[in-house]
Structure formats: C-alpha cells, structure tokens
Specification:
Layout lengths: L1 H4 L2 E4 L2 H14 L3 E6 L4 H16 L4 E6 L4 H6 L7 E6 L2 E7 L3 H23 L1
Parallel strand pairs: 1-3, 2-3
Antiparallel strand pairs: 2-4, 4-5
Length: 125
C-alpha cells in the first residue's frame, strides 16, 4: 500500500488534475505540485529527487503537471518559470519554491508537514 502511494503522480489531463485536487482536499493532505516541462533541464535534474521525497514522505501527495500539456492549469496558477513547486493544503497555496533547489524543496516540505501536525494536535486537544 505505502509503496503505491509513495510516488509522484503525473496529471496529463484537466480531469486527472481536478480529481487529484479533490482527493487531496478531502484528506487535507499536504500537496506538492511540480510544474515542469519535458524540455526543461533543471526539471529533469530535480525529478529523481522529487521521487525520493515522495518515498520519504508518503503522507504528502506529490503531483506533476507538464505546463505544455496543461497550459490552462499553469496559467491559472501563474507559473512563469520551471520548475515551480506549489505547496497546497485544502486548495490554498501555502508556499512556493521556484527552481531546482533540493534543500529548499525538502525544507519547505518538512516545514509544512510540521505545521500540519501541530495544527492537528492543537485543534483536537
């Protein structure tokens, strides 16, 4: 089960994108969206690292959107450079990392995972 979850999910259609967002909103997961392009060198460089993060943090949903396939989604999210990583929870943008910055990417994931666990513990107490 965990092995299946621990992957970067590519959204190739608007329907797939919307379905993933709905699922994530339902479960209130942290979502990291990788806006990428097949021709983008830094995107290819960071892809294996993103897959590693997905395995390391199975509670986080990692989505990948090719800006050439889903131009409207990229435009809706005001993506201007690749790679751009958006951090979402319940449909709200929490953070954004632009560029293939491994450390910053991992730190931002950790920061928002920690924020989630403190909010759930304080609200349920």
């Amino acid at each position: 089960m965990a092995a299946e979850e621990a992957q970067v999910i590519a959204c190739h259609t608007l329907q797939a994108w919307n379905e993933q967002l709905q699922l994530c909103n339902q479960f209130k997961n942290l979502v990291v969206v990788d806006f990428t392009a097949s021709w983008c060198g830094p995107c290819r460089f960071i892809a294996p690292f993103l897959a590693e993060l997905a395995k390391k943090f199975p509670s986080v949903t990692f989505l990948k959107v090719d800006v050439d396939e889903l131009k409207d989604v990229a435009a809706d999210w005001a993506v201007e450079a690749m790679p751009t990583f958006m951090f979402l929870r319940e449909g709200k943008i929490l953070d954004k990392v632009v560029g293939a910055k491994k450390d910053e990417l991992q730190q931002t994931v950790l920061k928002h995972m920690a924020a989630a666990s403190t909010t759930t513990t304080t609200t349920s107490a």
